[in-house]
Structure formats: C-alpha cells, structure tokens
Amino acid sequence: MATSATGPSVLTRRGLLAAAAGTLLLSACGREEPGEGDPVRTVAPGGQELLIGVSLELTGPGAALGVLQRRALDITLETLNDKGVPIGNLRRNVRLEVRDNAGDARLAARQVTELARETGVHALLGGTMAETSVALATVAQRERVPFVSLGFGDGIVLPLAQRTYVFKLTPDGGDMARRLARLIASQRLRRVAVLAQHGLHGDSGVRATSAALRAAGLELVSSTRLPRTGENFRRAARSTAASRPDGVVVWATAPDSAAAVGALRRAGYDGPVFLDAGAVAEETLQGGNAATMEGAYAVHPVSLGGAMLANTTMSALLRKDFVYRYVQLHGGFSGFAPYASDALQLIADAARLSTSVDRGRLRAFLQNQVTEGMVGMYSFTPIRHGGMDQGSLGLYTVSSGTWTRVS
User: Which CATH number applies to 10-171+306-392?
Assistant: First the structure.
C-alpha cells in the first residue's frame, strides 16, 4: 500500500473519501434538503454573512493564474448563494471582499491586514504566487484568521508551528518532482538540467528536483535560475542548453513556463521538457505557445484531463457543471481554474461543520477535512496543512495543442 511521509496511506484516504465526499461537497454547495425532524433554517439577515477576504493577482506578473481564480470564485459564489450555506440555525450568504494585489507581496499584506482588522473577514483565500502567499500567511497567522493558499511552494505552510492558520491546496514540490523523475528515468534519459523560476517557487523546485533526481539515480548536470517575470530569458536558456542535457525540467508558473520553453528552443535545445503543475494556465497553449509547447510533459492534478471519479459521483457532477458554466462564460477551461472554487467550498464546509463563523473554529474544522474537490483529493490533518494528495497527480503531454493524459 502506497503511503505518504506525513499521513495515512492514499488508499485509506480514498476509502474515506468514497464514504464522505458526496455528503461534504453537496452540503458545501448548500444544496442539501432538510430531513424530517430537522430544525427549520431561515436565511440570515444582512450582516450575518460568511465573509471571506480574497487577495489575487488580477494584474501584474501573476495575472495568468489570478484571473482564472476570480472567474472560478464568481461561478462558485453564485452556486453557494443559491440557497445559502447552513451554519447553525441559519443559512448564510457568502460575501467576498476581493482585492487585486498586482503580484506585490507588500501590497497583499497591507490589504489582508485591513480585511482582518477593519472589515472583520472570517477567512482568507488567494495568493497564486509563492511570494504573495507567504505574505498573506504571515498576516493570517498574526491576526489568527484561517487562510487557504492557491500558491505553489512548500514554504507557504512550513514550518507548521508558525503556520497553524495556513492551508495550501496545490501539490507539494516533492510529490511533483518524484513523478517527473520517474517519468524521465522511464524514458532512459540520464543527464538532466533544471531551469527554475526566480523566487520562492523556484527555490522549492530546485530542492525537490535535485533530491528526486538523486534518488532516481539520474545526473543533475546544471541548475539555472530564470530572471524575474518579463525579463529576457535568453542567457539562462543558453546556459542550460550548453550543459547538453538529455532532458530539462522547467520549474516555473505561467507565463514564465511557456516563455522559458520558447527560450530553450531558440537556444538550440530540441530535447524533451518536463514541467511542474504551476506551468499550466490557459495562456500556456494559446497563440504561438502551442507550437513551442508541443511534446512537453507536465505533472498536474488529474482535473486537467477530466473528473477523477466516475461521472455519477457528486464531485464529478459538480465539476461537470462548473466546467460547462466556465466555458459558457469564458470560452475555454484550464485545469488550474477550480483551485479557488475548492478553497471557497472548503471554507464554507468548515463553517457548516463547525456551526459557526468563529475564526478559531473554522481553523479547527479546516485542519480535519477529508474531501474530494474539483482539482483533486484533500486530506488536511493537524500535522499536514498541504492537503493535495499525491494520488491526485497525473502526467500529461501536449499533443496537437492540447493536454493529453499519459498516466
């Protein structure tokens, strides 16, 4: 039985999910009907809402992912407020206070400090960039407000003793790196280079990939860092190509991911490219990027290629409805988009289970949630706040301009 380093086995979690996911997700959307003998729940009057502060990169370097999250929130907010979220003896509407942090960590920190102290939000979510998520996590911990991060980077929730109010939905770096290393080894490639994004996400990727390659018996021939988003990647790409690798791991979120692959191709490297989950956004395969990315591999939650469970499960039905509405509104769909939807539903479900909007109670119930979301399976525990199960990850390749699952 496969096990993780920090919790029970994936199979055990899946067993729990089979029993609980339908009920949890159905109630999280506020769709359950009262049973005989249940107390009558009335809609909460104004001022008795579940109030959530949101800080996203709607402009600036993180907008490729941040805009997707805002779109997802709008869809899920409408679903939740169709009947309200049952919390105690009331059905509360959910209200979002959304701020654009423009990819600026200091601005993000100021925004959520105001939301926590003056607006009185019950929970926080956001931060698609590691830097903004870490800034948000610091404020959330200081103000004791539960925060669900959408960013990549293991340091967002570590060390746990200093992040007791912080939770992360994206996959852990080690889980992604090990999947990529196994894929590289299966293709009989031996010499591997890493081209990693500037900043905390790149730091996490270099550490995780170096360890995973070493464990798989592969040689790391070079490790090069990209400059900041928007700067010229030519020098970093040439340095990577000059090491003559058999394969290159590009560890970067969009839009840097496609830009880095393009720079590698222009530098003369024509071998296989392997990407972490942060590389995937709608713009990654748009326009001229589609030809550049053809044949690239990515590790990503299986939401990229379809629902995880049979189409008759509640989570799959909810995801199908979400994707349909998203495509109707925006004309295309990215597997990264539902992260914010899952975050919003997890917070709403914690409020329902705790029968309260008290920040401390929300935190306590968040850290004991085991559920399947639209992106993947989450199993938070008091000693594990990075809740994406490694069993939720799949491998994809770009074929004819679309992501195709290979395992």
Answer: 3.40.50.2300
